[in-house]
Amino acid sequence: MQLQQFVVAQWQLVLIFVLSGAMLLWPLVQRRISGTADIGTLQLTQLINNEKAITLDVRETKEFTEGKLPGALHIPLSQLKGRLGELDKYKERPVITYCAKGQRSRAAGAILGRAGFTKLFNLAGGHKAWKDAGLPLDKN
Predict the structure, then answer these.
(1) Same domain, 13 and 50
(2) Whole-angstrom Cα distance, residue 37 to residue 109?
(3) Does residue 3 form part of some domain?
(4) Nearest-angstrom CA–CA distance, 39 and 27
(5) For 9-28, what is each residue's pLDDT tens digit?
(6) Which CATH number do you get for residue 113?
(7) What is the mean pLDDT of residues 105-115?
């Protein structure tokens, strides 16, 4: 009875507790739903060298001025659904998506997964992680 009284009296506190817990779990749930595996810069380089992986930059055009990973294709996330046909020839190859910091690229992976791509990876930390590691960039 005391727990019920506490919950009723402190419903705002209980709501904050539940929402904060859900926010902590969301990244885990999002990773499972997207169907992509997070990889680092070393694994990305190995996939490119050993399996001819494709890197897909899903940053918006205004963000693209800082350069891109060498050889990366650029299709902004906002255009990805409409331009999936451009990627059909890569369905059997590993595809590594990245954005500025690694969040939107997970959504791109989910879109690609629904389109039939099966070897999907997300660059953890995105373009920032690549740049911070001192790795080369292609200038536009």
Answers:
(1) no
(2) 9
(3) yes
(4) 15
(5) 788 887 888 888 777 776 66
(6) 3.40.250.10
(7) 91
**Could you tell me the CA-to-CA distances from 44 to 4, 6, 21, 59, 103 in Å, in that order?**
52, 51, 32, 18, 17
Domain for residue 106, yes or no? yes
- Name the band, by pLDDT with cuts 50, 70 and 90, for residue 32: low
Q: Identify the domain containing residue 104 by its residue range.
A: 35-132
- CA 26, 126, 75, 92 dihedral sign is negative
pLDDT at position 1: 66
Do 25 and 40 lie in one domain? The reply is no
Quote the number of domains for the chain. Answer: 2
| Range among 2-6, 32-36, 118-122 rated most confident | 118-122
Q: Is residue 25 part of a domain?
A: yes
Exposed, middle or buried by CB within 10 Å (0-12, 13-18, 19+), for 88?
exposed
Judged by DSSP in three states, 120 sits in: strand
Does any domain span residue 128? yes
Element housing 73 (H / E): strand 73-74
pTM (predicted TM-score): 0.76
